[in-house]
Amino acid sequence: MKIAIVKLSALGDIIHSAFILQFIKQKIPNAQIDWIIEEGFTSILEHNPHIDNIKTVKLKSIKNNFVNIFKEIQKIKNHAKADYDIVIDLQGLTKSAITAKLLSSNVAGFDKASIREGFAALFYNKKIHIPYHENTIDRYRVLAAQALDITIKKEDIMQKTPYLFYTSQDLEQVNGFLVKDRVNVVFVVGSTWQSRIYPKEKLVTIANALDEANILIPFGNQSEYEDAKFIEANCTNVIVLPKISLNALKALISNVDFLIGNDTGPSYIAWANNIPSITLFGPTPPTRIYETNINKVLKSNSHVDPYKLDKNDFSINEIQEEEIIKIAQKFLHV
Hints:
Number of helices: 13
Distance between the termini: 50 Å
Radius of gyration: 20 Å
Shape: globular
Oligomer: single chain
CATH superfamily of the largest domain: Glycogen Phosphorylase B
Structural class: alpha/beta
Helix content: 25-40%
Largest sheet: 6 strands, parallel
Strand content: 15-25%
CATH architecture of the largest domain: 3-Layer(aba) Sandwich
Number of domains: 2
Number of strands: 12
Strand order of the largest sheet: 3-2-1-4-5-6
């Protein structure tokens, strides 16, 4: 059976959905699974033994030059030569639905009532209902299971095996920053909106409370670097890492004892690879993750409408440092 999964972006969404691969392979061992993804995100899926082919598109380039649409359509048609038995659109956007339809006539996706861009459902011949406000992991679980007529239970997800992969060379890039005589902790200090970022001053308080921990801070852009350096300058146990690759980031987070981070892709690497963590939510719904015995969620008191997120909701600032410290100390015994 040849299966194509369409999940083009973004980093966190791809991480959230990639858990389904191990369960598809368990239920359909001989399945060929290809993943269609925006070119810039390919490394998050690299080295995954459950993916046969990672096939790229550059649909974002169309915004800058509309003529690129013809090039991308041809690229998708070339991908379609694999003759897929079914395509599963996990994204539920018009662009992903059109991509899926160009890949095969047999497309499964969310029904009109289950996605923000209801128009996308017109391109699916197998439409699956699960409310948009439901847990993100459950939405992917139900869609994949019903599309392929297999069973994936909540209990299965809670017992998942780590599913983001890296090489020994990737680990070598960061191994020198990990220590054996103290617990290793990662702080994820950035996110896509300012209102999703926990204050750096409060992270200083947390870092100083975890004074026996070796705290490492990776960064992705200049703003994150500046915040990380501020924390480092006000603590004795914090190291700002040099710029590292996404594969090295996977290796780093997969080998630490704990992670504290905002609602953003790198934080979800911990959830994906069964590393204890706290994820902090302000203007976004905590239903983007399964809370487990080791993966905890702290949400501010603000109300979140999943259909209309408020970028001016800075309630993440209200989450008390003491709450985070208490949970971290429980796991780290610091």
